Amino acid sequence: MASPNSTRFIFVTGGVTSSLGKGIISASLAKLLQARGYSVTIQKLDPYINIDPGTLNPYEHGECYVTEDGAETDLDLGHYERFLNISTSQANNVTTGRIYQSVIEKERRGDYLGETVQVIPHITDEIKYRIQLLGENNKYDFVITEIGGTVGDIESLPYVEAIRQLKWDMGTRSLVIHLTLVPYLSAAKELKTKPTQHSVKTMLEYGVQPDILVCRTEKPLNDGIRNKIALFCNVDASSVIESIDTDSIYKVPLLMKAERLDRVVLKKTRASAQRPPKLKKWINFIKRLESPRGTVEIGLVGKYVELVDSYKSIIEALIHAGAENDCKVQLRLIHSEQINEQNIGEQLKGLKGVIVAPGFGDRGIDGKIAAISYVRKQNIPFFGICLGMQCAMIEFARNVLSLPKAHSTEMDTRTPDPIIDIMEEQKKVHMKGGTMRLGAYSCELTEASRVRDIYAKKEISERHRHRYEVNNKYLSLFEKGGMKATGFNPESGLVEIIELENHPWFIGVQFHPEYKSTVDAPHPLFIDFVRAAKTLT
Ligand code: GLN
Fold it and tell me: How far apart are CA 5 and CA 269, in angstroms?
């Protein structure tokens, strides 16, 4: 087995601009190494001051991804899990806020014994500690650490310095992959290498020589360009890796394989490349994505639809489920604020299934309720996730159970019928960060329910992120009306799932199944929802 300190550390930095796809490149490299039989984990270090992205508006930072252990993390962790089919945890996402928080706590405890606490060495030591923590006990063969932001930004500096020190300490057990942009100037009909040269110069100013350059480009890099980049940036031409735009993130591992990124990494870190990557399942998935037998149009009703990153995991889970059903899921994003009872038929026209998205606050609630009312009456498959489930119950209470003012106390604290209410233990909570019901909880599925058939087991575990809950006082009323709770948390009795009788497919879940869908294991609820959308309407 592994000898002392055999874990290799790969650092992924970005230059020139943001959004070059560091997360996807990291996940793709990890996939290739995993497919060769190596154990791999990925970590994201984010240079902002928030302790975690849980308090960030989706407009700022896209979706907040929740891990099994209840960490609210960057959406890149979702990509890591979807690509690798392994769970990440709190330790896989660290922000500057968290680094400073623990350094300041140590200072207050007196741990620094009178020293002046400084960015170097105290903050950099804490960063190094958080990186190396994942390599403890040689649990992984490779730890890939992605540094958020762009090199040259003030806030990235301590991270680049920590990498410089680690690289010095670790030698060939570590390497730096730097992502840059090679823009195409259409007027000159040329790819330009200058931004890459400048970005590498910035790295060199900080004392870090990148070992591999991954160059994001719209056009293929010819040998001339590769050689030029190699010459100016002190790397060999085989370490200049083309990352060309592609229509699916899931093709990137194969593109990286063709560019031999994994081989270069193995060679430079002195690891064996003898076992070729086993990617049969992945390639089959791509084939199904590429040649679907049909298309099914599904609507996603939410209030952040301008920004698809806000619903990243739901969108990816639908892609996985589509491939599983041999069909392409055509997604129509519908802004809940633009829906009303008059235009609902037009807005949802042609859709074979509708998802109502998770969310917070009352903006767009009426549109969500109108959409649910429509699909309930029109027998269109409906899938409500978290707030989507809560809205389904509000709609049902108002329109079927004759409780016209029923609401969630999140939106209306004075409703006479609080069918969704704040959890008892949440009433004492005043701090917003990290205090929701978060992470994995188990759920028992009722016999003779649709979900029991779909999951084909009695007990499941799913991840949560919410403060409000179904008010069990109203449960029998709902049941009499035909809306049944079919999943409960065994310890607390909280309702986790509701289903509507006499409807082709109408399921609401208090948890977030989308976080658990991966390429290797698409989520059963999404698979069955897409199957229903494909076959029932
Ligand atoms: N706002 C709701 C709650 O806190 C739903 C949260 C969600 O959809 N994730 O309970």
Answer: 13
Q: Quote the pTM value.
A: 0.94
Closest CA relative to residue 124, chosen from 166, 87, 91, 85: 166
Q: How far is the CA of 245 from the centre of ligand 1 (A)?
A: 35
DSSP readout, 431-457?
Answer: --TT-SEEEEEEEEEPTT-HHHHHHTS
The residue type found at 380 is I
CA dist 107 and 126 (Å) reads 12
* 3 state DSSP class of 297: strand
Please identify which of the residues 81, 324, 499, 514 carries the catalytic annotation: 514
Q: What pLDDT score was predicted for residue 1?
A: 43
pLDDT tens sequence across 235-285: 999 999 999 999 999 999 999 999 999 999 999 999 998 899 999 999 999
Active site residue 386: yes
Residue from 55, 57, 410, 512 whose mutation best tests the ligand 1 pocket (most atoms within 8 A of CB): 410
d(CA 244, CA 496): 43
* Token reading at 235: 């790397």
Ligand 1 contacts CB of residue 358 (under 6 A): yes
Residue 187 CB neighbour total at 10 angstroms = 5
Assess whether the C-beta atom of 465 lies below 6 angstroms from ligand 1.
yes
> Does residue 121 have a cis peptide bond before it, meaning omega lies within 30 degrees of 0?
yes
**Ligand 1 mutation target, pool 65, 356, 425, 465, most atoms within 8 A of CB:** 465
Q: Say which amino acid occupies 347.
A: Q
For residue 322, CA distances in Å to 38, 380, 535 come to 29, 18, 13
Q: Is 406 in the pocket of ligand 1 (CB under 6 A)?
A: no
pLDDT attached to residue 2: 43
For residue 387 and ligand 1, the question of a CB distance below 6 A is answered with yes
Place of tokens 């992945």: 282
CB atoms within 10 A of CB 309: 13
